[in-house]
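#structure-requests
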Amino acid sequence: MFAVAKHLVWDWNGTLLNDLDLVVAATNAAFASVGGPVVTAEEHRRDYRRPIVDYYAYVLGRPVAEDEFVRLDDVFHRAYREKLVDCALADDALDAIHAWEGTQSLLSMWFHDELVPEVTRRGLVHRLARVDGLRAAVGGGHKAEHLATHLAELGVDGPDAVLIGDSVDDANAAHQVGAAVVLYAGGFTDPPLLEATGLPVASSLLEAVQLAVAPTGTGRSTGGT
């Protein structure tokens, strides 16, 4: 096998970090603050989408105004931070990072000032050429623009990169920059939704890396559905 991409971009939440249960708990805290329903992990994986305000509106069954989303986002992140220390990496995250022979980096939609210390605390930062998180006060948007900026800062062209992530939004972001993508079925998205994109889907991070380096295993994203 030989690499079809020179550089690998990792997603963080739901991919390298196994935080689905924590995200569901924090999401339920946000919904509870406005009298919303309790969602299960299975329901979250089936219905989750970006922008996150659209997901909240879907679950609550009504529009969510910008100021209300800011409050919900604050409740979510306060609940998330309380239990983050107990959240582990994916079982094979370290093995997968070591299995990639090219350069690699990490791009997350979590807050940059909190992401970098967390990645450092877990002993990953020395393996990564760059770590980028969200630099805005409120998140929840799409990843495409952030991926383009991330690659530009690295000096990596889109077609020379492959993204490993756990959402259709990751697939769409890769499509926007012309990168390859492998989708990870162990994260925030129900596997049938990932498979519906027609893109490579892996059940483990090691398998995702194997697909990323297989000359016939990694397709260019068509944007997903």
